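Q: Here's a chain of 143 amino acids. Please give me its 3D structure as tokens.
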Amino acid sequence: MSSWSDLCLICSGQQDLVVNIRERGPFERSHDYTRVLYCRACSVGELRSFSYDGFVVFGEDDEVMVWSSVLPTADVDRLRAAFTCSVRLAGECQCVQHVRAYDTSLRVGKTRLPEYGPDRHSPAGRTTAAVEVIDGLAEFRSA
């Protein structure tokens, strides 16, 4: 369930998958997901949206695009405790909790990561997100 793009922002180590908010694919020429990841070594969380589109025409857009926002450890802990779906890693789930998490994640300002270079895995200049519990459901906000 993890991929090369799930590397930590700081140490480039493999992160834990906390919640798979939404996922389509992987298919042969496309794959999209929104996930919350956490690196135990660095104590940093991340709200990450990933898109691979193998149908992109050269010069139109990048084939692989990643948007990211830092989640403080306290917010990752809050998400773990408050996420009401028992199958939190099921990115295809359409329960109320998964839908609310996805809808609110879209409104969070995320930093688009460069495809290559040192800024790809750096928290510098990265936006920060927060987790709130509203009406018993976990949702995301820009911090």
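Q: Can you summarize the key feature?
A: The first strand starts at residue 16 and ends at 24.
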